[in-house]
Please model this.
Amino acid sequence: MKVLLVGGGGREHALGWKLNQSPLVSEIISAPGNPGLADLGRCVPVDAEDIAALLALAEKESSDLVVVGPEVPLTAGLVDQLGERGIAAFGPSARAAQLEGSKAFTKAFCDRHNIPTAAYRAVQTIDEAEVFLKTLDAPFVLKADGLAAGKGVVIAETLDEAIRAASAMLDGQFGSASQTLVIEEFMHGVEASFFALSDGETVMPLIAAQDHKRAYDGDKGPNTGGMGAFSPVPHMDEAMTQRVMDEIITPTITGMRDEGMVFCGVLFAGLMIDADGPRLIEFNVRFGDPECQVLMMRLHSDLLPLLMGCATGGLGDIPLPVWDDRGCAAVVMAAKGYPGAYGKALPIALPANVQDGSHVQVFHAGTMRNKAGQLVSSGGRVLSITALSSQPKDAADLAYRKIDQIKFPDGFYRTDIGVKL
Ligand code: AMP
Ligand code: GLY
Model:
């Protein structure tokens, strides 16, 4: 089977690495891919957000399955348009992708289906914002309604700060994404990222991972796309997983179907867990990055039938995936300055023996080859060094030993992945 993989981050390299192990996959073409994916197949210089060019590529290559990594092409309707051309694709339709594309949509959906989440109000004027903020206790949570590349959430410590932030957001800080704001009650507890697959009918639980969102050690510094992840997550035991399925995931898949927005693909629930149980922070409609890297390392089963089952139906006939019992951790190496301004074309020396084919994998993200063929950086998050060992903490220690062999003088990484504060 010929797979077209859309995207070029660490998530997509991990998906490609796992798909490459499938006896059912004959070729992997990536758009745009990265040097890691180039070792697994062809990379075509088509942007992951260029819907017309992706459609043309899928048709030209007669792809049997298009696997869409990032959210932007999903909310833009890539899967709908592939469907109109008779091409199978893994990922939700544009309407179903609203679960990630609009926080106001998701909050209203949760209200309609009794899905536990923070109390909220969606507002479009500063007066409405102020009235609602005054009913809440500090800290205050403000979110841009639309996609903001993971940067659209502000947590303000004081009412004044919250009002100033609301005003900046409504004035276009995140462009049209913040024309509507969602203001939420602050939830206390421990977080987890939980993943489930669906073909619209069957709901298949995967596993949980925990992300480290802040840039620096000790959960300091700005929020990023994710500086590391680990799995398993101690507070997501079997009983809690069942509650998440029963109270959040299954009602969402059923509710979306009942409302005529059948959800196919991976549903990623960001959760806050306290003594009362799990509550939804947000949904994403794609794998997390770097959570995907640890999921793929722990997955023993063939990935292709799972993705194909979501795309074409019949997920219920596929056995539940089998997972490695060991712990896994991914440590992200980023360019200095990330998530703010950072340099590009920074040299990286990555010895071939850093990965051993079983316990350690280096997934590429913002890397490229320069004219001389040398590996250099091309983005903020550059590599994720992902390792398996008995416990997530041991896996992180193994990843750090491997990082010592990588020379990326203009890069940085957190030294506390796998240890949650
Ligand atoms: P999001 O992009 O919605 O996942 O938010 C980013 C981060 O902000 C989350 O991982 C949480 O740490 C935090 N956060 C978002 N919403 C809330 C909330 N209502 N209460 C507490 N923390 C939150
Ligand atoms: N690591 C969080 C995300 O992918 O949204």
